[in-house]
Amino acid sequence: MSFTHCIDKLGEVKHIVGAGHFKMEYYKMSFIYILLGLCMVPSMFSLPAADEDVHQNAEWKSSRHKRASGQRDISTQPLIFESTSLPVSGNAVDTRYMPVVGNGHLATTIYSNAIYVNGLYNGRLGTSHRARIPSYNAIRVDFRNNADKVDATRSYQLQAGNGLWISTLETPEVTVSVVIYAHQYYHHLLITRVAIARKETETGKDIELSVTNNRGPDSEDIDFRTEVSCAGINIPEMDCKYITGTIKEPETTGSEKTVVHVYYTGIPNTLTLTAAEGSKSWLFATSIDITSSRQAQSAYGMLRDLSLEELEGAHVRRWRDNWDDGRIEIDGSLELKKILYASQYYLKSSLPAPETHQSKNEFFGVSPGGLGRGAEGMDYQGHVFWDQETWILPPILLLQPSAAKDMLKYRIERMRPAYKRALEDEYQGLRFPWESASTGEDVTPDTCIACRENEQHVTADIAFAARLYVAATRDMRWLEDEDGCEFIIDMAKFWVSRAKYDANMDRYHIRGVMPPDEYHTKVDDSVYTNVGASLSIHMANYTACLCEQRFPEEWDDVASKLHVLYDEDKDYHPEFDGYSPEDTSQNEAFSNITNEKVKQADAILLGYPFTFDFTNREARRNDLNIYRGVTDESAPGTTWAMFSIGYREIGDDDQQRETFEKSYKPYVCEPFKVWTEASEGVGATNFLTGMGGFLQAILFGYAGFRLQLESLYFNATLPPGATALKMVDMDYLGAKLNMEFNRDQIKIVLKEMNPALPLEIELLDEERVVVLKPGPDEFVYRNQAARFYTSKSSGCLLPPDRVLPLKSGATDIHRTHRLLFVVLSSLLLCWYAVHRR
Q: Which residues contact 290 (CB under 8 A, 6 or more apart)?
């Protein structure tokens, strides 16, 4: 057997022992050392090489397309992204780089052939994906007569402040505009308005426009019946049609096929402005619902009662209200302003509109590519991952806590399959799936079985998101009446049942998991997973107190004794048991054991978002520096955002700036600021996950916010090129605040206050406390570290959020193992040297 294969087999045996198939007894540890020694004796025995189970994101790895090129954003307005040309692939518009209009109920990528609806999926389990409704709003126009095209110019705008897509065709005689938007108030409606106006008041010749619509083929996902004329809806110059159908295959056996109802306007081939007319407008609308034909019909019927100006005006007002309901701003760099606004716009477009005319349907979560994408095999098929809780929820929470609550409600509504999944694996509590869609069953495709089975940290991620929500809101109604207590406590129950006690170490282990670093598909004691599990259990203790429930004392023992790896010599946290950051690229024999390369942020997440309490804080610096050297350069932008936050914590301004810029510049595509997942190639597009990481780098990096269970800490500095950083209508404990940070001062206006939870601010450098009072007056003070809190304490003991130091006896055991290894290896080498002669 070759030296490499022998080392492979050792890794396999080590994995079996670590996975709990053998008990960790000393004689079995000795057996491993003997086997390693035998590996040093060539050809003494031969075993077949083990196959590796390596997960690859096929979409990411195979998508190596050139970025959109030749387009640039020519607008100087921070909320407008404008170009005179569109991204193209061949002779067609490259919709991967086109913007999305959406409202949380429905969405479309501009000029694509698909409309997607929240919660509408087709396909069984791993093939489940967003069901495509053919688009009736991907309308483009041109002049029919070549003579009218002379001197014509085009421009394209995404108005993020108003939620409008506007394309303009202009000649010296006329201006033609096509406006597309997903209505922010009448949320069942997707609207396209075509308008033409002469520049001179006098009339002229007929102007004919040819109309094309990218409907695409019939839906592959929905069995639609024959379209019929709309009954009971008579709107002049709007040819209303109605179709209904069901998805072709439900997500699980026995599930009902979702019904979809679509009202839409027929699209003519030609639109004409007659010689007698100075201007004219046409309206094309689609109204969709999956719960009731009446809802869709009623929304379409609103078009009869509203003028075009009233319809569009109501949409624009609601979008502005949405922005005023929570946003982040900067003064200074126009480039950074635009990316900041674009990121917030695309996130808001996939979240439920704050206020709607009709009742909102159940919310089905946020997928990495948002609501406007998710076809079969593309953009993660619209599935919900850990991305929702880890990358998207935290920045939304301080801006629109109701949207964060909707994300958690999506999980709560799917607790039944999570209980079932835990029981199937002989555990207790709630085990949430790695990928989820409509039912809450695990819909991870078979292309990554290891992800489905091993990437269990998603349950810890959801638990941590619930912790953040409680910290930001202290929402007792959610805890007591909306299953929040059960939700948090039963996620902890899963981790208690998942951890196995090791009497020799006086520690609990979690074995056989995949960490966020998906280059390692099955490891023991993933430091990220174990810390997340510990925090989950600690949070359950705090929650039980809030809800006046009993907390099992033995659970606290598990939380405090989960084995969190720490290398005393290097003063850092190994990613998992057996990980080494040393560069072994030149040593093929050991490469299959160490696999030192890291796919994305993993162990560095202990400092943020987990803010786990380690006794030795210098280890934070070492974690950052060591993992920076071994992280794959093609990692998603979220990774560099987390490095940026970490470097802010240790005061390394240069590295903070470098990794901050690295977190967005390679991923943002002009001219409409659409994010891609990969820095090389494409991967998922409209990548909300990357946007969430970027926003966190500003909020929790530069602004320095930290949500703790009974306080909100902050310590602000400014992003590169910014002269001020602002939080507009920020929410904390039911209060609404405006905050502005500049280099010297912090300004705070308490706009509203929750009387039950009055706010105070402690200025840490000045060592003074100020009681905040609502009103227009600004509270101004020197820029320094500070924290908000309420004098109305919960009365519950805050969790320690740490593990106990490893006992000296346990450390001595590991030293004994290392010594035994050295002795046995030396003896075997001596034996080989003698017998070789």
A: 117, 119, 120, 258, 259, 260, 261, 361
Strands 270-273 and 259-265: unpaired
Instruction: Compute the distance between CA of residue 284 and CA of residue 342 in angstroms, rounded to an integer.
Output: 27
pLDDT digits over 113-155, tens only? 999 999 999 999 999 999 999 999 999 999 999 888 888 999 9
Q: Greater confidence, 53 or 476? A: 476
d(CA 240, CA 255): 32
Among 315-319, 588-592, 669-673, where is mean pLDDT lowest? 588-592
> Cβ neighbours of residue 216 under 8 Å, at least 6 residues apart?
113, 114, 132, 134, 135
Nearest CA to 363 among 132, 103, 688, 104? 104
Q: How far apart are CA 222 and CA 771, in angstroms?
A: 58
Which residue, among 272, 277, 140, 282, has the nearest Cα to 207 in the 3D structure? Answer: 272
The one-letter code for the residue type at 678 is A
For 188, 579, 754, the CA distances from 513, given in Å and listed in that order, are: 42, 14, 43
803-807 long-range CB contacts below 8 Å, 24 or more apart?
803/534, 803/559, 803/560, 803/561, 803/562, 803/563, 803/564, 804/560, 804/561, 805/615, 806/505, 806/507, 806/566, 807/505, 807/506
User: CA dist 225 to 228, 261, 299, 565, Å?
Assistant: 9, 11, 21, 59
Beta-bridge partner residues of 169? 154, 176
pLDDT digits over 765-778, tens only?
A: 999 999 999 888 88
Residue 580 burial (10 A CB sphere; 0-12, 13-18, 19+): middle
- Please state the φ and ψ torsions of residue 311, each to the nearest 5 degrees: -65, -50
For residue 692 the two structure tokens come to 């969430």
DSSP string spanning 74-118? Answer: ---STTEEEESS--EETTEE-GGGS-EEE-SSEEEETT-SEEEET
3-class DSSP assignment, residue 184? coil
Q: Which of 348, 337, 369, 364 is nearest to 688 (CA)?
A: 369
Catalytic member of 312, 518, 670, 677: 518
Is the distance from CB of 263 to CB of 296 less than 8 angstroms? yes
- Nearest by Cα to 691 from 730, 641, 643, 644: 641
**693 SS3 class:** helix
333-338: list long-range contacts, CB under 8 Å, 24+ apart: 333/719, 333/720, 333/721, 333/722, 334/76, 334/78, 335/721, 336/719, 336/720, 336/721, 336/722, 337/78, 338/73, 338/78, 338/81, 338/673
Which residues, in sequence order, are CB contacts of 663 under 8 Å at separation 6+? 637, 638, 639, 640, 641, 643, 644, 690, 693, 694, 697
| Amino acid identity at 239 | D
- For residues 437 and 213, give the distance between their C-alpha atoms in angstroms, rounded to a whole number: 30
Helix ranges (H only) for 438-522 are 449-454, 457-473, 476-481, 484-498
Within 10 angstroms of residue 191's Cβ, the number of other Cβ atoms is 24
Take residue 333 and report the two structure tokens written for it: 């760099």
Measured CA to CA, the distance from residue 784 to residue 388 in angstroms comes to: 32
User: What letter does residue 237 receive in the DSSP assignment?
Assistant: T
Does 760 qualify as catalytic in the annotation? no
Q: Output the CA–CA distances (angstroms, integers) from residue 652 to 621, 624, 632, 647, 657, in the order listed.
A: 10, 11, 21, 5, 9
Sign of CA dihedral 364, 365, 366, 367: negative
pTM for the whole structure: 0.87
Residue-wise burial string across 74-111, b where 16 or more C-beta atoms lie within 10 A, e elsewhere: ebebbbbbbbeebbeeeeebbbbbbbbbbbbbbbbbbb
Whether the per-residue pLDDT at 67 is higher than 60: the answer is no
Whether the pLDDT of residue 25 is over 50: the answer is no
DSSP assignment of 530-599 equals HHHHHHHHHHHHHHHHHTT----HHHHHHHHHB----BTTTTB--SSTT---S--TT-HHHHHHH---BS
